[in-house]
Amino acid sequence: MLSFVQSWFAPTANPIGVDFGSDSLRLAQVDSTGGEFKLVAAARTDVPAHLKSDPAGKLSFFTENVRELLTQGNFRGRRVVLSMPASAMSIQHLRMAKMDEAALKSALPWECRGKLPYDPSHALMRHIVAGEVFADGEQKSEVIVMAAQREWVNQFLAAAAKAKLDVVGMNVEPKALIDCFSHVYRRKSDQESVNLFVDIGAHATRAVVARAGDILFARAIQVGGEHFTRAVANHLKINAEDARILRAKLCHAQLQTELNRSAATPAPVAEGRNIRGENDISGVGSRFGAESPSCDADAPQDSNAGDCRDAERVNLACAEPVGRLVQELNLCRRYHEATFPNAHITRLIFVGGEARHRSLCQTIAREMDLAAQVGDPMVRMARTTDVGPESGIDRRLPQPDWAVALGLSMGPQGVPAAATATAAKA
User: Fold this and answer.
1) Same structural domain for residues 267 and 344?
2) pLDDT digits (tens, 9 = 90+) for 123-138
3) How many domains does the chain have?
């Protein structure tokens, strides 16, 4: 099994999803009634910059801050599902002879030798059989292995126990992400669509190809927000903090423009926010929202000339790392479509903190010539909630960086919150 969620057993709400990323700690909890979800609690805090390269310090930060967030966010209970941080996880594709589940699980440590950055005997491994492929003259299984060092997993669980959390399960980020959007995209056309989820984080990007809730491909790409920020700092000859502030300012201006536009012309509920580039390549239909405004390279239309010039300079500065990311995403696309020639990717869905930078998403979509949208995990949730913007969630805007935390709390589609799932033994 991929995930090892033990059980939910929540009479009043699902367990709390805990997403501990490189730059932030997010907690989210939903309640499910009649197959529909309602957000009941959420809270977040940023990871201090000086701890981002200090694993022990980050775990201490987790223990100290998760308790405060539980109180601050008015969460129900202390039952949590943890996400295995992407920074601690390795992903490897294997092509193996067809065999039953027990034999496959036994064979994985041997097959992974030399392919993981650590000894597989010291790793906790989960796998997915993505499908069947014809290779070397025979039918084989395409297997995706997701692994983490067992010592680190034990340290993470110890930090959670120290915070007095009742850990009922742990999941990997790609599975939590797909679980989340399996609840969002439920139309027949969505079930047939093959989506490439582009989860752009602070230090890396995760590419996940999925169809109808099934993961077909997964890979980590070592390009993320910090690379864009450093590129801006080098190009404009400013320090990294000023570059980060400039990028955040331009992102905020774009979001404010969207808020102003929404206030002027209320839009119907959509399942995402459509992104269109200059070449209008992202027309996925009106139900995905309105076309984003642009100012040359994508600065807000109603911003001043200075913002437009800044946007142009930032986009120019980011051209090299964005180009590398596009190149890697195209390699992912080619591998997947060569493996499963009848499952061509039809849509990009951007998630993660960097998905708030619309110009970045537009550029990637335009270069890959694919329909695209910002994934908003909140669109199908009840609008009535006591959770306000102070939680870090502003319902007026897409929330692509909350997909993992919400997916952890939602669980897999078709598994009710009170159901029991079998734990995969470590």
Assistant:
1) yes
2) 999 999 999 998 888 9
3) 2
